[in-house]
Amino acid sequence: MTNLIDQGKTAGKLVEFSMLQNIAEDDAQHKNDYKMLFQGQGKILLALSDDDNLPQKVLADRLNMTPQSMAEFVRKLEKRDLVSRKKSVDDKRVTIVSLTDNGRLEIEKRMQVIPKYLRALNDEELLQLNNILDKINEQMYLDIKNADSTLHNKYHQLMLNHVLTKIHTND
Amino acid sequence: MTNLIDQGKTAGKLVEFSMLQNIAEDDAQHKNDYKMLFQGQGKILLALSDDDNLPQKVLADRLNMTPQSMAEFVRKLEKRDLVSRKKSVDDKRVTIVSLTDNGRLEIEKRMQVIPKYLRALNDEELLQLNNILDKINEQMYLDIKNADSTLHNKYHQLMLNHVLTKIHTND
DNA sequence: TGTTTTTGTTAGGTATACCTGATTAATTTT
DNA sequence: AAAATTAATCAGGTATACCTAACAAAAACA
After folding, report:
1. Average pLDDT of chain A, as a whole number
2. Per-residue confidence at B23, pLDDT binned at 50, 70, 90?
3. Are B63 and B47 in contact (CB under 8 A)?
4. What are the tens digits of pLDDT across the range B143-158?
5. What GO molecular function terms would the record report (chains A, B) (predicted)?
6. Beta strands in chain A (DSSP E)
7. What is the pLDDT of residues B115-126, one digit of tens each?
């Protein structure tokens, strides 16, 4: 596997990339926005953007979090007017969490940020990068699926849907 | 600029990529290692790997942090045996921070992680990705430089050196 | 030499992401 | 109907990344 050497090189460049990303986006909240998409409150927003109106319990399961943490984050999101909570009619124990219009906008805003550095690429390179990302992402889907055959982490499945429908379609 | 549309597509895939990365590396500390390379204590380690034996003040300046934060992080790193501190002989006010062997190993370990998803790429694609990352990174260097003409953030300069010498050379 | 500047420390604080334990209220099971 | 399970909440905790204010010691400057 001579390939391993090339992989190593690329790995280095990816670290470099992350580093630079981190520094370059040092300006204010833009960075935070982007970074916080995949943790805590951001994760929840993302999950809801795929599948709205979920009970807290379901969210907690999907995102691999305790219900207590979920309660906390949802409360915080509610305060920021990004989600709303209402009691389920069928089951008065459950609280349904929904995105507010505000929340939906917020997600859109965060996801539509086009990193400035993409300007550096010409059409051909953009196409290449697209294809490469497709392959990489597909590989990760596989890895995730395999690591998760037990299905106990529904989040993975969730993200699969999310991305496949919302992003992949515009190829 | 029709290109904007393609950029948008790619931006989406990059978000997808980050998301998946986040989920796929869900296993234990591997994830944390990688993520924490660019913040707080990790940043400091990285800075020292380029240029060792620095006064705390210099580190604080380069990393855009208050000296107090720096003191805190350095203390934490010392506790973890990743750096050592010694008083400068020339200037008894300054504390010189140095990587321990342990710290050096730690950085190597963290940076040499080859993401599994790179397996999915063949030689040609790996080459393409390499070139693309070069271009993107170069663009970011420019952006950083421009944003930082005042030179008040030496970190950027630092990273420039770091990456150019340590990573770029093996092209 | 006395004042000012610089490096670093101590103390205290904020915010975010999580977690465990205990408890309540609603629903299901027996 | 009583017991067990479930969804959520409250209370309290840990860890990390930062920050400001106040202050001591050393060095530079006047």
Report:
1. 76
2. low
3. yes
4. 766 654 443 344 444 4
5. DNA binding; DNA-binding transcription factor activity
6. 54-55, 83-87, 95-99
7. 778 888 999 999
β-strand pairing of A54-55 with A95-99: antiparallel
Q: HSE (CB half, 13 Å, CA atoms) of B44?
A: 33
Of A11, A16, A120, the CB nearest to B113: A11
**Which is nearest to B126 in space by CA: A118, A168, A131?**
A131
Task: Note if the pTM is more than 0.90.
Answer: no
> Is A138's Cβ below 8 Å from some Cβ in B?
yes
Secondary element (H or E) of residue A50: helix A40-50
Q: Do A137 and B46 touch (CB under 8 A)?
A: no
What is the sign, positive or negative, of the torsion defined by CA atoms of A143, B113, A45, A89? positive
pLDDT of residue A98: 97
Strand C lies under 7 A from the Cβ of residue A152: no
